[in-house]
Structures are given as C-alpha cells and as structure tokens.
Amino acid sequence: MKKIIVLILLVALVPAYLFYQKNNAKVEEPAKEMVQETTPSPVATMYSIADVEKHSTKEDCWLAIEGKVYDVTKVTTSGKHPGGEAILEGCGKDATVLFNTRPMGSGTSHSDKARSSLANFIIGDLSK
User: Fold this and answer.
1) Confidence tier at 41 by pLDDT (50, 70, 90)
2) Residue 95's closest CA among 128, 67, 125?
3) What is the mean pLDDT of the chain?
4) How many CA atoms lie within 13 A of 28 on its CB side?
5) Looking at the structure, do residues 9 and 35 belong to the same domain, yes or no?
6) Could you give the number of structural domains in the chain?
C-alpha cells in the first residue's frame, strides 16, 4: 500500500515540478530582455567646430545645427536630398542659419518632417 501511495505521489509531483520549471524559465527570459532595452544610452559625444570642419566634402559631410552634430554623408553621397546639392553648402560648418532659412530655395525654414529626420543622423553635441 505504501508503495502505491509513493508511486502516485511521484507520478503527480514530477510532472508538476517540470511544468513549474518550464513556466518559470519563460517568465525570467522577457525580464532580462526588458532590462537590456531600458539600459540608458551613453553620454553624448562632444565635437568642436574644428572637428566638424574636417568633414566638409560630399563624400564626408558633417553639419552642426542648433548645437547638435550630424553626419549626413549617406544623404550627400546618395543624391537623394530633396534640395539637391544645396546641402553641400553646410558641409563642415555650423549650418544652423542655412537650415533655418534655406537661402538657395524658398528662404523659409525646413519642415517639421525634415527636422525630425535629422534624428537619424545625429552623432553628438557641438561644444561651445
């Protein structure tokens, strides 16, 4: 009789334990991923205007706009800038005034869409 009770307990407890282990492992995995996703990004890199000036060609174009530094080389080399080669005017410079006035075009500031697309090219902050 004791053997039957022990056997019944084993048959019931072993699958329950395995089920618990399997489900417990699934709960822990996403928690690790969430920690990785919420890890803060490193401090922004600072660039001087002299650093920006070293990147003044179509093949290597950095712009400083409103205190941020952008590497727009992918845009200048692709030929897909909506304003054509007007972007080259700002390569290697603080292009804040150019960006805000578009002197070769309408004389108005760039659109909100153009401003939001800058986020794709930011590489750091312009030091003062």
Assistant:
1) very low
2) 67
3) 78
4) 6
5) yes
6) 2
